[in-house]
Amino acid sequence: MRHLAAILSLIGLAVLVNAAVVGDLRPPPHWDPWAPLDVSAPATPVTGWKLARLERSPTACRAALESSRLDWQAVDDRPSDVGCGLSDAVRLTGGSPRLGEPALASCPLAVALAMWAHHGITPAAAEHLGSPVARLEHWGTHVCRDIAGTNRRSEHATANAIDIAAFVLEDGRRVVVHRDWSGAGPEGRFLRAVRDAACEAFDVVLGPNYNAAHDDHLHLDMGRFSACR
Length: 229
Ligand SMILES: [Zn+2]
What we know:
The chain is an alpha+beta fold. The protein has helices at 2-22, 47-54, 58-66, 107-128, 177-180, 186-201; strands at 70-74, 89-95, 103-106, 133-138, 161-169, 174-176, 204-206, 218-221, 227-228. Strands 4, 5, 6, 7, 8 and 9 form a six-stranded mixed β-sheet that branches. The chain has a three-stranded antiparallel β-sheet with strand order 1-2-3.
């Protein structure tokens, strides 16, 4: 409750500053919980709320995707009797972040990827590696399967998850989760920084610190749970 009060006071402050500076009584869009999410706008305490809303509003999600630097194509809905269908999905074909292989993604997953690239990967690469990231190597998004060891569908079953194994830099270097995660050098610091940043964009982030099944990739999803491990 104190957290909510603090956020509301900050929004109030943003309204006052905006009113004084530009004569507008609304908060600036990145402080306004009901304004469309702009991927490249500065993150504020209401950004997480805007992201969560995308999972309930395909229209808001498409608008957020339009604000990103991703290249994407809409994909027809695919009903499924076995829990592996697609709805409001897109095919990611290029742009930023560029994926090593084009991939299907639910709209919220695509927006979270764009948020992570802009607010997490780009600054972490500049700080730790001195070279921008050219592309993300991934092991797939849409796989009709259960969570290992359970009879519950994985978020991968609906293209609502992606497994990231490596980052290829513009200078040609590769930063590999399996090899570099625990390293004391810049590659390890970069990987741990982008894992932390992923937790701001995705609902679930599972990496090498979680269990042995994740010691070679970061699992990122926009599913029903919340985890940052
Ligand atoms: Zn996964």
